[in-house]
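The data are passed on as follows:
___
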Amino acid sequence: MRNDIPQIGMTYQIMNREGIYDLKEIAQEYHAQQQYLASQQQWGYDRYLKNSSNASAEVCTPFSQQTQQCSIWSINHYLGLNRHPYVIQKAQEALEIYGTGCGTSAMSGGHSQLHKDLQTRFAKIFSKEEALLFPTGFTANSGTISALCRGSETLILIDRDSHTSIIEGCRASASDFLPFKHNSLQDLEKKLKKYSGKYVNILVVVESAYSMEGDIAPLKEIVALKEKYSFLLYVDEAHTFGFYGKNGAGLCNELQLTDKVDFIMTTLSKSTAGVGGIVATSSAFACMLRWSSTYTFQAAIPPADVMVVNACLDLIENDSGIISTLWNKTHYFRKQLLQLGFDLGQSQSPIVPVYVRDPKILKEMEQALFEQGIFTVAVQYPAVKASEVRFRFIVNNSHTAEDIDHLVNVLGKLGVKYGLIKPQEFSCASHTPLE
């Protein structure tokens, strides 16, 4: 293995080695480079939380047997409900009544009344005729897209920065698919104009907020394009459901676009602190998906997780302070970083990227943050371009003012050290109120 290659990500190096085709040799190369990165304290992907998801936890590093108490900034529990007493109580009640796993798919008797009621509840939330409950958000996207697009008569247009679950759905389909430039209405319309007469169906897939950038899709403008071109619109609300719109119903709801969007999807592992995915649509499309998507063949989510989601929905709908608290913390954190001069891109959501743009510095900073009691994961190639590497800090309601202030101060020092920001007085106000 060549140690002189810049350490900017194992996959990047392997993909740039020529002449390796044997699967065993490729696997050995992966393993060797992982061992090397671990020896250089640049391999953080096997770190885990000793006591599971929380805003603060003991983080374990298997390669070095190192442990560190950290604030956690990589988990998508935006509203911090995964440890809420009411949610835990309802999960315990479900275990007593319904047991653990379902043992089979929805179509084979895996669903209980709980599952059916949750589907009905989401259909109402998204103002759709029906909603389907998938075992994960990943399979909700991949299964739905691949089932809808089964022939050469359909073209799928996706945002260039779409989640892997969307891309895998396109790959598993029998249809052509093309990316358009990220959030570019001009490029999307250019492709719609070019291909509208060549395909019977066009499916446009976007995310309401993008998980790596934290920016927002121009949903109003995309919906307006439907008046000029005939296409179906699929919106992934994974990173907006729970804290945008009325009672957290998402960005489509906030913009009053739900009736113009053909498919609304969200995950249940983020704001609602469980597991699963939802796709809401018309009864006709729901029927089609029941018979032809992964919905038919995957085991249903455990009843306790259904109860967890229901409990979270109860809290979101009945306590507006849950949402406002998240936004107060997000605005406070974002304001501090902008005042220091960090590059946050076009982000607007509780996903706050800090662009580093140098892969080597990124990995050094990741380790330095860890040593200062801050856990996050470097976002590097191939998840993003090597020139766009960054950190992604996800704000949630369990973070305290102390957590935010400590992170800002450590980032400020590292930002000066590595030339990301200019030297200045960067000590933020201690524990500033977040009302």
Summary: Residues 321-340 form the longest helix (20 residues). The chain is about 40% helix and 15% strand.
